[in-house]
Amino acid sequence: MTFAAPSPGEGVPTPPPPAPAIPGDPIPAPADGDVPDIVAAYDRLSERLGRVRGEVGRIIFGQDRVVEQVLTAILSGGHALLVGAPGLGKTLLVETLGRVLALDARRVQFTPDLMPADITGSEILEEDAAGRRAFRFVHGPVFCQLLMADEINRASPRTQSALLQAMQEGRVAVAGTNYPLPQPFHVLATQNPIEQEGTYPLPEAQLDRFMLQVDLFFPDEAAERAMLLATTGASRPAAEPVLAPGELAAAQLLVRQMPVGEQVLDAILRLVRGARPETASDQRVRRSLAWGPGPRAAQALMLACRARALLDGRLAPSLDDLAALAGPVLRHRMALGFGARAEGVRLEDLIDGLVQRLR
């Protein structure tokens, strides 16, 4: 798997090396309404996803919840913001997922001097042997399937906004021309919550593009012990591909075909609308929040609940999926007012209260 930016002389992304043969039946994308085929495809996909989690777990220790949430975002076709202290394996997790899911993965280190063209690419003026001059577009590192935006909050808001169109529309517009990105396309951005000097807060529009905010914490003692034994020896384990190229796109289509019950649908609407100060029935929520989640939050919950159910081997999402994903989907789409911050109100407590009212 190559993580280097494409050579300017080539002007196109470096293709990933051929993936090895993946054991097991391929994951098809059955037609809508073909219930027996869909159920069989769900069974095959659920088994394959179990192998994906197992392969990632050989490399990443003590972060099962994090792996589940990131896979949920990818299966839903979305992006994830990884927030955690240094040394918790954020970079290694992205590299491992690129390998296990057979995706072309690239990494961009966000710094204060990074420019938008360093991400999307730019046009250069070339002259041929006959003296004719023409502009040629040189693709940037965003032209990949899995982009790691490392320490995204260290770049200026202008540079961060270079990802807005790519994350929402799957294309990049340069000099009036649209360039489609490889599909599937996902952004996994990392953010360090400790070192805030020299960082820029992510704009609300940028935060809203991330389906989930995944918080990383230190592993427990048993996981840290296993990590020490596995990573300090003469050799280190290497991840192997589990999905073949193209199978992830088929899996994402299967997620969108999963039925959602009226109870879960109504709960999603009540949760999202109850988290907005304009429509909340809870007076504490109305007083505490400066702004709340938009329609993208409801869409994210709808897809993420389906993906989590599939990861758990179920054919339909439940209220438990909604409760587990409410925090990761909502916390970066809400902001406390000045008075609430002064009183020590926590977003997590507000979200937990909204979830409790759904049961």
From TrEMBL:
Pro residues composition-biased segments: 13-29
Segments traversing the membrane: none
Residues in the signal sequence: none
Family annotation (InterPro entries): AAA+_ATPase, ATPase_AAA-3, CbbQ/NirQ/NorQ/GpvN, ChlI/MoxR_AAA_lid, P-loop_NTPase
Gene3D superfamilies to which the protein is assigned, alphabetical: Magnesium chelatase subunit I, C-Terminal domain, P-loop containing nucleotide triphosphate hydrolases
Region spans: Disordered: 1-30
Bias (Low complexity) ranges: 1-12
SMART domains named in the record: AAA
Domain named AAA+ ATPase: residues: 76-220
Top-level taxon of origin: Bacteria
SUPFAM superfamilies (UniProt xref): P-loop containing nucleoside triphosphate hydrolases (SSF52540)
PANTHER family named among the record's database cross-references: MAGNESIUM-CHELATASE SUBUNIT CHLD, MOXR FAMILY PROTEIN
Official protein name in the record: MoxR family ATPase
Organism whose genome encodes this protein: Rhizosaccharibacter radicis
